């Protein structure tokens, strides 16, 4: 019987070598092969074959083509703190006094007629600021201000799409203002119109 043939397996240490690390990759489907991510071809997992491939004209041409078409990193102008504050103030005004729709024109108006002309805010950005920045901030402040003694006011409502919601308001003694405060707390969707669904909605609200 002849001597069994030895198959060289991929060695991870090759990935650290200067001549290989830019293009060499392990080929997971076959441990006896390597993969060139520049040329998108498989190679036998032998050092001689890897060196030969790296020095081949085909590989060098692929590397040159990538360098030519490689895009420069895009540099973004940093947004100033003043701009962030202005956009947050506009979003806060809109959330308290009107619908979000006018913010498209309000942002352009502020840019045109006021000295601070770096404001770029429209409906999508305004909505994200309200939901992801302002709402968590004020909810955190409200939780700290409420304490342990409060009362809840609830009212079931139906929107134009015939979805049932439970509006929840809260009455509490404010620690910071030293007076009784009544304010909106949450709007929870009702799965069903019964007492159990209302209780579930209230519990969900209080767990937030």
UniProtKB/TrEMBL annotation:
Superkingdom of this protein's organism: Eukaryota
Stated name of the protein: Protein FAM200B-like
